[in-house]
# Entry
Amino acid sequence: MPGPIESIEGVVLRRESSGETWARIIVLSPETGIIHFLQRQSKKVGHTALDLFDRISAELEGRDGSATRFSREIRILRRLPGLGRNYESLRESCQFARVLMDNPVHEESWQATHDLLEGALKAWERGDRADIVAFKSLFVFARGEGYAVREDWWRRLPEQERRQAAHLLNQATRDIELSPDQVATIRQSLDHYVRHFTEIRLNA
# Structure
């Protein structure tokens, strides 16, 4: 029997086929957090095929006795066509989406996490340096989850790297002149801290 209808809005974090009939969709919503649902796949004219990082609104229907939701209607509110033109930006955005899916946040952080993702996606699409946007995004996410990354991780760095990290965090991305190798060193340090001193899971 059909269940209750739920309206959501959010950003597509993952889309994958589930057999020939369905696509499994994962969305980050500022109102409801991480949402999973199934969308019927169709080749009919007018079918709304979703892409990664589309912003959508959707009506979802449950089924009595099941936690599975099915889409009834989907509207695409915003697309980021430029994101797929840069391999590094797309790779970094997918990795950050994986972090968000692997580490569901508390209700009070849904809006802030959604806004962080939207800001990062816009930066990646307009061509900001992918490595710097990724570093800043992880730092802000960890700080938003309550970890003392500025007070603890930053203070553990050697003096030169501490200055470079402060430059990365305090300057607009377009004004940062650190080399990819310098940024990679700081990112590796932050990744190590997050893996070993927080409960945030990072994919390998």
User: Anything to note?
Assistant: The chain has two domains: 2-78, 82-197. The mean pLDDT is 91.
